[in-house]
Amino acid sequence: MNKTNIEEISGGITAVQGFKASGIHIGVKSHDPNKKDVGIITTEVADGYSCKAAGCYTQNKYAAAPVVWCKKITEKGQAQAIIVNSGNANACTGHKGLEDAKKMAELTADALQLKTEQVLVCSTGVIGVTLPMDKMAAGIKLAAEKLSPTGGHAAAEAIMTTDTFAKEIAIKVQMGDYSIQIGGMAKGSGMIHPNMATMLGFISTDINISSEALQEALSLAVTKSFNMVTVDGDTSTNDTVLVLANGLAGNPQLQTDSGLFPGFCQALQYVCLYLAKMLAKDGEGATKLLQVTVKNACSWQEAAKAAKAVVSSSLVKAAFFGEDANWGRIICALGYSGAQFDPDLVDIVLKSAAGQEPVMAKGCGLDFSEEKAAAVLAEDEIEILIDLHDGTAEATAWGCDLSYKYVEINGCYRT
Question: What pLDDT digit, counting tens, does each position of 400-412 carry?
Answer without folding.
Answer: 888 767 666 666 6
